[in-house]
Amino acid sequence: MTRNLKITARKADRKSCRVFGHVKYLNSQVDARILNLSPTGAALEMKGPLHAASGSKVRIEAENLGLLEGVIRWKHNGRVGIQFDVNSNARAQISSYFRFFHKEMRPVLAVRPLVRTAANVERTPHSATSTPNP
């Protein structure tokens, strides 16, 4: 991360994604969802408490990413920021994810349930061979 006017900025742009996996710290493991990802780091939403402080080394395991190691840079309201260990293996795994698995994610603002009323249901036409009702 670089500092400009005492503001910490990311080195690489992050792309939104929805990758499920888990985070390992010492002997504990917590399910997580990767919210955004870049070659240098990721933001995760934890499904449970992660008892690790900023600066702690963790491992992220996800089906489409494999195993990534990094350091916790921030924690806030069940979310965690991880800075990856810089090595060629991590860069190759992230590059492979973006090449083969990544799909652009857009936020969902609202979802309305589909309600079918009798007026909206199309009627099937009666065949000529059917007998009329008396």
Concise account of the structure shown:
The protein has one helix and eight strands. Strand 4 and strand 5 form a beta hairpin.
Structural classification: mainly beta
What is the makeup of the main sheet?
6 strands, antiparallel, barrel
Number of DSSP E strands: 8
Give the helices and strands as they follow along the chain.
EEEEEEEEH
Known CATH architecture of the domain at 15-101? Beta Barrel
Q: Give average pLDDT, whole number.
A: 77
How much helical structure, as a percent, in the residues? under 10%
Q: State Rg.
A: 24 Å
Q: What is the CATH topology descriptor of the domain at 15-101?
A: Thrombin, subunit H
Organism: Rhizobium leguminosarum
GO molecular function: cyclic-di-GMP binding
InterPro entries: PilZ_domain (IPR009875)
Protein name: PilZ domain-containing protein
What descriptors fit this protein?
42% strand; mainly beta; 1 helix; 6-stranded antiparallel beta barrel; two-stranded antiparallel sheet; 134 residues; single chain
List the helices and strands and how they pair.
Blueprint: E1 2-4, E2 7-9, E3 15-25, E4 28-37, E5 41-46, E6 57-62, E7 66-76, E8 79-84, H1 88-100
Antiparallel strand pairs: 1-2, 3-4, 3-6, 4-5, 5-8, 6-7, 7-8
GO molecular function, one term: cyclic-di-GMP binding
Domain PilZ: 10-97
InterPro entries: PilZ_domain (IPR009875)
Architecture overview:
The N and C termini lie far apart (81 Å). 10% of the residues lie in helices and 42% in strands. It has a domain of 87 residues: Thrombin, subunit H (Beta Barrel), CATH 2.40.10.220. The protein is built from one helix and eight strands. The strands form two sheets. Strands 3-4-5-8-7-6 form a six-stranded antiparallel beta barrel. A two-stranded antiparallel sheet has the order 1-2. The radius of gyration is 24 Å and the shape is globular. A hairpin with a 2-residue loop joins strand 1 and strand 2. The model has no long low-confidence stretch (mean pLDDT 77). It has 134 residues and is mainly beta. The longest helix has 13 residues.
